[in-house]
Amino acid sequence: MNISLSEAAPVVSPTSGDGVLSLLWLIPALPALGALVILVLGNRRTSPWAHWLGTATVALSFLIGLVAFFQLLGRDESDRSVGQHLWTWFEAGSFTVDLGILYDPLSSLFVLLITGVGSLIHLYSVGYMAHDAARARFFGYLNLFVAAMLVLVLSDGYLGVFLGWEGVGLASYLLIGFWHHKPTAATAAKKAFVVNRVGDMGMVLATTLMFATFGTVSFEGVSELASGASQTTLNILALLLLLAACGKSAQVPLQSWLLDAMEGPTPVSALIHAATMVTAGVYLVVRSNFIYELTEVGRTAVVIVGAVTLLAGAIIGCAKDDIKKALAGSTMSQIGYMMLAAGLGVAGYAFAIFHLLTHGFFKANMFLGAGSVMHAMDDDVNMRHYGALQKAVPVTFLTFAMGYLAIIGFPGFSGFWSKDKIIETAFGESLWIGLAALAGAGITAFYMTRLMIMTFLGRKRWEPGVHPHESPKVMTIPLIVLAALSVLGGVLLLGDWIVDWLTPVVGHAEHHELPLPVIAYTLIVVAVVAVGVAVAWLLVAKRDIPREAPQKVSFVTRAARADLYGDAANEALLMRPGNNLVEGLVTFDDDYVDGVVDGTGSAAIGMSGTFRRIQTGYVRSYALSVFAGALLVVLALLAVNLG
Amino acid sequence: MEAEPFIVLSAILFTIGGVGVLTRRNAIVVFMCVELMLNACNLALVTFARVHGNLDGQVAAFFVMVVAAAEVVVGLAIIMTIFRTRRSASVDDASLLKY
Amino acid sequence: MSFEAPHIEYATLSPLLIVFGVALVGVLVEAFVPRRLRYLVQSVLALVGLVAALAATIWVATDLTVRGDGAARGSIVAEGAIAVDGPSVFVWGTLLLLSLISVLLFAERHLDGGLSAFAGQAAALPGTEAERQASTRGLEHTEVYPLMMFAVAGMMLFPASNDLLTMFVALEILSLPLYLLCGLARRRRLLSQEAALKYFMLGAFSSGFFLYGVALVYGFSGSTHLAAIAEAVNGRIGGQGLLLGGIALIAVGMLFKVGAAPFHSWTPDVYQGAPTAVTAFMAACTKIAAFGALLRLFYVAFGSAERDWTPMIWIVAILTMAVGSVFALSQTDIKRMLAYSSVAHAGFLLVGFVGLHEGGEGISSLQSVLFYLVTYGFMTVGAFAVVTLVRDAGGEANHLARWAGLGKESPLVAGIFAFFLLAMAGIPLTSGFTGKWAVFSSAAQGGAWPLVVIAVLLSVVAAFFYLRVIVLMYFSDPVGDAPAVAVPSILTTVTIAIGLAATVVLGILPGPVLDLAADAGAFIR
Amino acid sequence: MELYTPVIALAAIAAGFAVFSIVMSVATGPRRYNRAKLDSYECGIEPTPQPIGGGRVPVKYFITAMLFIVFDIEIIFLYPWAVAFDAMGIFGLVEMVLFIATVAIAYVYVWRRGGLEWD
Fold it and tell me: What residues make up the domain containing B51?
C-alpha cells in the first residue's frame, strides 16, 4: 500500500535480477529446445523418448519458475519487477527495439500456471496419446506451444508479446489440425488460423501505432509516455488491443473458432483452449492497464465484450451434446467473466487474474476428465451416449466433480471465491453488468449440472460394445493434482494476497462502497446457483434422456445448438464489410484447393478464381492494362493538381 | 520557331503507335508500332532541344536510336524463334500462359 | 569551339566497369574457347568477376566522401551522369551478392541428367531431330553468362543514374538480356519462348512510355540531369502539364519494371515461362534495381512535387497489394503463385516508399525500402532455388497438385520451402517480418495511416495463400506418383543455404543490415 | 526560306531528270523483249528464285540485316565524333577506339560462331 492513490496506472520500471532471476531466459528456452530437438530429428527417430523429453523440459521450467517466484516473493514490494535484456532486435537511428524479459508479479503467476498445468498435461498426454503413431510430433508441437506462450507472458514489450502471440497461434493451428486426416480437424485448424489473423491484425496495428506515437513499444516506455498521448490515440489503441484479445480469447465477435477447435486432441483443448492460450487476451488487457486506465471508451468496450460473451458462451454450453463443445462454451463464458473484470479497471484486474488462475485449474481438470471419459467410451463425445459412468470411472468422476463444484461456485471451492469477487465488483460498477454476471452464474450452474448428470448419473445409454474402464495412472495423477488445485485455489485470496501481490503491476483500487453488504451478494450468488442446479435436476435428471437429440425444440435451443448462429452472424456481419475476403477465402480454399488436390481443378469458384480470368494470356490485353494504368496514373496526378 | 505543332505531332504519333500495339495482331507490326512510339519520343526530344536551345535532347535522340536498334535485334530474334516454332507471328496465338 | 575532355572517375566506377568488362570478355570466350571448356570458363569467369566487383564495391563504400551536412555521402561522377552515393553502393552490394548466388543456379547441371536448365540450341525447333541431337551432344548456351553479366551491369547502372538519359539506357541494358534469357529454357520451350515474347513486347511498350516521360520532363526543365530537374520542379518554372505528364509516364515505365499493378500483368506469365534460375535472378534483382532507381528519381528529381505524386503512389500501392494477394490465392502453378507474391511484395515496398523519405528520426523510407529489398531478394532466390528441385519426368513439377505430400516425401526440402513461405508471409523471427515492420513503420511515421491499415489487412490475406501451400505439402497426400526431389549439386545447395541463412539472420538480428541501410544515408543531389 | 531555295531547286532538277529519262526511254527505245530482260534486276547475277508461299526469305538474310544494324549504329556516333574530332584530340581518339573495339567484340563473336558464312 505504498503507492499513492493516483489515477494513473503504475509505470513499469524493472530492476535487474541476479541469482536464479538471471536464469529467467531458461524458462522459455527449455521447452523451445525440446521442440527444436523433437521437430528437427523427426517423429521416427525421437519417438521412443520424445514424450519424456517434452515433459521434462516443461517440468524443469516449472521448477525454475517456482524458485524464481519465491525469490520474487522475498523481494521488497517496490522491487518486484525484474528486467533482463536479451538482445537488440532492431536498431534504426534513434530508435531501438530490444527483446527482453519482464518478470513481475503478473508474469510470475502466468509462468507458474503455464508450466505447472503444462507439466501435468504433458504427463497426461503420455498416456492419452500412447497409441498415436505421431506422438513424438505431438510433443514437439506441445513444447513449441509452451515456449511461445512463455515468450508471450515474459516479454517486456509489445513486439515480444506479438512474437509469442504468433507462436501460440501457429502451435494452436498445428495442434487443432493434428489429426488432419479428419477433414473437420483440418477445416477447424484453418478457421482458427484465419479468425486469429483478424485478431492479430489488431495487434500489429496497435504495435505500429504505439511505435509511431511513442517511438517505443516496450512496456516501460509506453507506460511512461501513455498519459501524454491524445485521447483519440488511446481510444484507438485500446480498441485495437481489444480486437487482438477477442481473437485470441474467443470473445464475441471472434468467438466462432473455439468450438471447432475442439477437433484437436483433448490435452490440447485442456492446455491451449482452456487453461492458457485463450487467456492471453485477458493477459494483454491486464498488462496494458496503463492504457486502459486512461480510456473510458476502451474499458467500456471491454466490459461489454466480456458481458456479451459470458452470456453467449453460457447459452451455447446449455445446448451442446458434445461434451467437449459444452466445455468450450463454458470456457468462452468464463473468459467473458475475466474480460468483464479486466474492463472494470483497477478494481477488477486482480480478480480477473485470480479467476484466470482458478479457471485454469478447474477447466483443465474437467477437460482432462472429459478426455478420460472419452478414453473410456472409445472416443465417443456425445453425452447422450454416456450415463451412469460414476461406477465405471470412479477417479475421473470424483476429480470431475471437484471441477464441477469449483466452476459453479460451490461455497469454499476455488471458483466460488473468484467468481463471487467478480460479480461483487461488477455490481459495484453498474447494476446491469452485475445482473448479467449473476445470470451467467445461474446458467453456468444449469449447464454444468446437466453435463454432470448426462455423463455420470442416470441410466446407461452406451453404444453397444463399449466397455468403459478407468484410465491409467499417468492420466489420473494429473487429474487428482488438478482436482486438488480446483478445490484449494481459493487460498490465493487469503488476506487479499493476490490483490496485494498484483498491486505493483496494476495499481491499488480504492474501496468501493457497495449498496448492499458483501455477504448479501454472496448469498444472492449462492441462491442463484442453487436455482440453476435445481432447474437442471428437474429438467434433466428427472426425465429420460433420449439417445438422439430431439428435433422439436424451442428456438432458443436451436439457436444455441447452432452456436447462437455465430457462424451465420459472422457471415452476415463480418463477411460483408472488409473481412468477407478472409472468411470467404476459407470456403473458397476448401472448394478449390481440395479440388485441385483431388485432381478436379474445374471446381474453381470464388472471387480470385473469377478475377484471374482477367489474365487472359493475350499480350494485347496486357498492353491494354498498361495503357489503362498509364491513364490512371496521369489522371491521379492531374486530379491532385486540379482538385 | 513555334514548338507546339511538333509536340502535338509527336503526341499524335505516340498515340498511333500505342493504339497500334493494342489493336494489331502481327508481332512485327506491333513491334513497328513500338518503334513508332520511340520515334515520336525522338521528335519530342529534338523539339524540346530546340526550344531550350541546348543539345541534351539531340544527344538523347541519338541514344534512343541506338537503343531502338538494339531492341530491333533482340525483338526480331525472339519473334523469329516464335514464328519458326508456331508458324505464326500473331501475338494472340502465343497465349499458353494465362490465368 | 572550345572543348574540355570529360573526366571519368575510373576508380569510383570500378565495380560497374568490372562487370561490363567481364561481360565483354564473356563474349570473347564464346568466340575463341573450345566448346567443351566454355561452361567451366564462363561460370568461373562470371563468379570471379562478381566477387571482384563486390570487393571493389566494398572498397568504394569505405571511401565515400561526406558532402554538405553529412546526411549524404558520395560523389557525382562521369560528368554528372552517375551518382555513386550510399544508396547506390548499398544496392550494388545487394545486387552483386544476389547475382552471385543466382550464377550458382545458372551453373547447376546436376538436376537434369548433367544438362543445364538452358536450351541446348535455341535455334533448333522444339520437338525436332535437331533439338534431340543438341541435347544428346550435350550442347548448351553458355552465352547465358555474358547475357546475365550485361543485365547485372544494367541493374547496377540503373539506380545509380543521375541523369534521365543514363537511366533510360541502363533500363534497356538490364532489360534486353533478360528478354533473351527468358526464352532459353531447355524444357517447355513453347512456354519459355512465349514468355520472352510477352516480356519483350510489353517491356518495349512500357519503355516507350518511360521515354516519352523523359522527353516531357526534359521539355519542362530543359535538362535531363536530376539536379537540374529538381531545381526546375522546385521553382515551378515551365508548364505544369509537361511536368505532371512526364512524372506520370516515367512512373509507368518504372512501375512496370517493379511489377506494380496495373502494370504487373507480364509478371506471372514471364515468371512461369522463364527458366527457373532466370526467374529467381530477375525476380530478385530487377525489383531491387528498379526500386533503387524509383527512389532516386522521385526523391531527388521530383522531391518537391511530392504532394502531386503521393496520391498516385497510394492508389498503385493499394491496387498492387490487393491484386498480388488476391490473385495468388487461386493459382495452381507454384511459380505463378510466387510471381503474384512478388507483385504483393512490390505493393508493400510502395507502402514504405510513401513514408518519411530520407533522414529524420526513426526509420526513413529509404532505409526501410532498402532493407526490405535485401530480405525480399534472399528469400525469393532461395524459394525459386527450391522450386528447381521438385521434379518429375517432364522437368520441374510446378503444378501445385504435384507438391501435395512433399512433407512426407522430403521433409527437409518441404521444411525449407515452408520456411521461405512463412518469411514471405511475414511471420515473426523471419526476415519477412522485420522487413514488413520496417516499411510499415516508416509509412506510419510519414502519416500514411490508412495505407498501413490496408497493408496490414492485405498482408493477412497474403499470408493465406502461403499457408495454403504449406497445408498442401504437409497435410495432403500425394496425387498419383509422388514427384521426386532431385539431389542438387553443391551449387544449388549453397544458394539455398545462403538464402535460408540470410532469411533467418535478418529475422533475428536485423540490426547490422538495418545499420548499413541507415549508413547509406541520403541520396546525393 | 532562302536557306532552302538551293535544296528545293536541286530536288526539282533531280526529279525532272528522272522523269525525263524514263519518259524518253519509253518514247524512243526499241521494244525487243527476251527472257533475260523480263527478269528481276539483280545487278547482273542470276536472280534467286521467288520463294513459294508469299515472299518469305531465308533466315540467312536476317542475320546479315542484323549485322548491318550494328554498323548502322556505329555511324550514328562516328558522325558527330568526326565533326568534333579536332577539338577532342587524343582523348577523342582513345574513346572512339574503345567504342569500336566494343562493337568489334560483338562482330568477332558473330564471325567465330559462323554468322558470316552464307551456307
Answer: 4-86
Q: How many domains are there within chain B?
A: 1
Residue C100 has a pLDDT of 95
Chain D residue numbers touching C27 (CB-CB < 8 A): 105-106, 108-109
Chain segment D48-98, per-residue pLDDT in tens: 666 566 666 677 777 888 888 878 888 888 888 888 888 888 888 888 999
CA distance A254 to B69: 61
Q: How far is C26 from chain D (nearest CA, A)?
A: 10
- For testing contact with chain D, the best of C3, C35, C121 (most D CBs within 10 A): C3
Considering the domain architecture, whether residues A146 and A165 belong to the same structural domain is answered as no
Residue B34 lies in a domain: yes
Residue C36 burial class via C-beta count within 10 angstroms: exposed 0-12, middle 13-18, buried 19 and up:
exposed
Q: Looking at the partner chain, which of C249, C460, C515 has a beta carbon nearest the beta carbon of A91?
A: C515
Q: What is the pLDDT of residues C140-155, one digit of tens each?
A: 888 999 999 999 999 9
Same domain flag for A114 and A192: no
Mean pLDDT on B42-71: 92
Chains C and B touch (3+ CB pairs under 8 A): yes
Are the beta carbons of A89 and C510 separated by less than 8 Å? yes
- A537 secondary structure, DSSP code: I
The residue out of A118, A137, A156 marking a domain boundary is A156
At A245, the amino acid letter reads A
Q: How confident is the model at residue A604 (pLDDT cuts 50, 70, 90)?
A: very low
- Is C249 within 8 Å of A630 when comparing Cβ atoms? yes
What number is the average pLDDT over the span C336-353? 94
Residue-wise pLDDT tens digits, A376-419: 888 888 888 888 888 888 899 999 999 999 999 888 899 898 99
Instruction: Answer yes or no: is the ipTM higher than 0.95.
Output: no
Maximum Cα interatomic distance, chain A, rounded to a whole number of Å? 84
Residues A367 and A356 in one domain: yes
Residue C79 near chain D (CB below 8 Å): no
B contacts of D80 (beta carbons < 8 Å): 62
- pLDDT tens readout for residues C186-196: 888 889 999 99
Closest CA to A563 of A337, A322, A366: A322
Query: For residue C6, which residues of chain D lie inside 8 Å, CB to CB?
Result: 91
Select from C172, C197, C272 the Cβ nearest to the Cβ of B82. C197
Distances (CA, A) of A28 to A58, A145, A360, A431: 9, 10, 20, 43
In a domain, B67, yes or no: yes
pLDDT in tens, A110-142: 999 999 999 999 998 988 888 888 888 889 999
**Cβ-defined contact of A598 to C479 (cutoff 8 Å):** yes
Structure-block grid coordinates of residue A309:
460473451
Element (H, E) at A101: strand A95-103
What are φ and ψ of residue A2, in 5° steps?
-85, -10
Q: Single out the residue of A188, A582, A181, A598 nearest to residue C332, CA to CA.
A: A598
- What pLDDT is recorded for position C358? 62
> What does the domain layout of chain C look like in residue ranges?
14-519
For chain C, positions 259-318, list CB contacts with chain A under 8 A.
261-263, 265-266, 268-269, 307-309, 311-312, 315-316
Same structural domain for residues A94 and A216? no
Spatial CB neighbours of C498, under 8 Å, sequence gap ≥ 6: C101, C378, C382
**Residue where a domain stops, chosen among A561, A595, A616:** A561
Domain holding D47, by residue range, is 2-113
A174 and A49 share a domain? no
User: Distance between CA B48 and CA B38 in Å, rounded?
Assistant: 15
Give the mutation candidate from C147, C165, C270 for the B interface (greatest B CB count, under 10 A): C165
Average pLDDT over residues A536-549: 74
How big is the CA angle at C485 (ends C479 and C487), to the nearest 5 degrees?
170
C28 touches D at CB < 8 Å: yes
Q: How far is C196 from chain B (nearest CA, A)?
A: 7
